[in-house]
């Protein structure tokens, strides 16, 4: 019987929880709920006009929509958007909620943000757009869907690198094929003269380099007069040296 009384008291208390008047405290209370996707509690606390959903806190200058997009709390993200959260708000690094959702592969959040007219072409402080974030992590299916919202497959970051450059660097074969199929320029150099083939070869991405060569990539030197072949040789030398060192260590141990 005592247990039931305590439970009833706890439930009454939960129903009367209110946001603190201090914006920072209110932000942290809501943030913890959003991370746990406690959308019913978030909805209740945001039912009045007390808290500005576009309030950004801390050195990162992120609002609650960034938090929801980053951790994939779809229901909370939907609530925030309905409450008027700025879909294109940029944090200290220039990232929008769409950037964070793309980086972490949060499909449902991406779809909802695009429904609310999120701009896929916004650049962060390093010049990275949504297409870069999807390519760097090999989110091929999401990348394919994104082409319904942008035609600029060769958009460059601050160093002149396109999504194809970063996909080749990380060896995401299906992403490379997807980008090429959508018209990515295969021999486009960055600001240092590195083409996608340079990135594939310098990072030992053999299969990716093979795809590029089959699709028409050329062995053109960069601004330091190094070709992709030079990088292949360097990678092989380093690999052989590491293997030799390891064998010596195993022999002497």
From TrEMBL:
Pfam families: Ank_2. This is HACE1. Gene3D superfamilies: Ankyrin repeat-containing domain. PROSITE patterns: ANK_REP_REGION, ANK_REPEAT. GO terms for cellular component: nucleus. SMART domains: ANK. One of its GO terms (biological process) is positive regulation of transcription by RNA polymerase II. Its EC number is 2.3.2.26. GO terms for molecular function: transcription cis-regulatory region binding; ubiquitin protein ligase activity. Keywords: Acyltransferase, ANK repeat, Repeat, Transferase. ANK repeats lie at residues 60-92, 93-125, 159-191, 192-217. It comes from Mytilus coruscus. InterPro entries: Ankyrin-SOCS_Box, Ankyrin_rpt, Ankyrin_rpt-contain_sf. The keyword Acyltransferase applies. Transmembrane segments: none annotated.
């Amino acid at each position: 019987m005592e247990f039931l009384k305590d439970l009833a008291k706890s439930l009454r208390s939960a129903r009367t929880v209110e946001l603190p008047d201090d914006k920072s405290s209110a932000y942290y209370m809501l943030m913890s709920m959003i991370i746990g996707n406690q959308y019913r509690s978030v909805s209740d606390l945001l039912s009045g006009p007390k808290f500005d959903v576009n309030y950004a806190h801390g050195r990162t200058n992120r609002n609650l929509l960034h938090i929801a997009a980053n951790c994939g709390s779809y229901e909370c993200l939907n609530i925030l958007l309905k409450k008027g959260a700025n879909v294109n708000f940029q944090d200290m690094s220039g990232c929008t909620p769409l950037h964070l959702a793309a980086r972490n592969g949060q499909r449902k959040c991406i779809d909802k943000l695009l429904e609310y007219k999120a701009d896929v072409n916004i650049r962060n402080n390093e010049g990275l757009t949504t297409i870069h974030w999807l390519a760097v992590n090999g989110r091929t299916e999401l990348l394919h869907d994104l082409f319904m919202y942008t035609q600029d497959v060769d958009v460059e970051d601050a160093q002149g690198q396109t999504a194809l450059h970063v996909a080749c660097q990380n060896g995401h074969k299906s992403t490379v094929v997807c980008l090429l199929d959508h018209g990515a320029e295969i021999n486009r150099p960055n600001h240092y003269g590195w083409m996608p083939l340079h990135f594939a070869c310098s990072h030992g991405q053999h299969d990716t380099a093979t795809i590029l060569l089959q699709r028409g990539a050329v062995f053109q030197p960069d601004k330091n007069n190094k070709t992709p072949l030079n990088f292949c040789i360097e990678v092989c030398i380093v690999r052989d040296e590491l293997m030799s060192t390891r064998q010596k260590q195993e022999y002497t141990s």
